Amino acid sequence: MNNTTSARTTKLDAELSRLQGEHNELQRRFHELSRMLNIDSTPELVMKKHITDLKKYNELRDTGLGLTQIIANEKKCKIKEVFEEMGYDMQDRP
């Protein structure tokens, strides 16, 4: 192995070790917070639920926009004007 390959391997090994340490720390914190909040779940289940909730949110949002479009068409105006009339902002919020 030449010097550049060896140096690159050493650098990648150090990065891998650092990332494994971060992963272990995140898992430790997840389990600590889960115990504190009495949550009996795994990170995978939390992510799966989050994705399911996002899909549901997007479906509801699309339905709402569709209904708003129908209202805007009936009033012969833009969707933005319907939202403003209802006091809603068109921006998604976190």
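^ that was protein a. below is b, sequence first then the tokens
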Amino acid sequence: MLVHLTQLFKKHLGDEHVYRFGGEEFTLVVNDDIEVAIITMDKLRTDIQNHQFTYMQSTLNITISIGLVGIDAHEHTHLSEILRLADNYLYLAKNNGRNCVVNGLTKISNKGKETLTK
């Protein structure tokens, strides 16, 4: 199943970088501005949601929650800070219904759920 998921990542990201970061977590490096990256990640999310995965002769449908961080190439941001922000956005996505892309531009205000501000 991870092979098929990685193929979907590469379909949307081309030659961009895809890294497995943990058991079910990946780090994807997208060399675009944040608005284009949001669109790309949302298309990826939709494609995964609509894809039928096969595992041991069973068909599975899965979703993905994405924490997206935009960085300025001229800023000297440490990798640990970028990963911390991405992880925070990922958990906001999971806590706000899953199957979505959350980033520093996202506004979340679902009945007492945490509101994300940049």
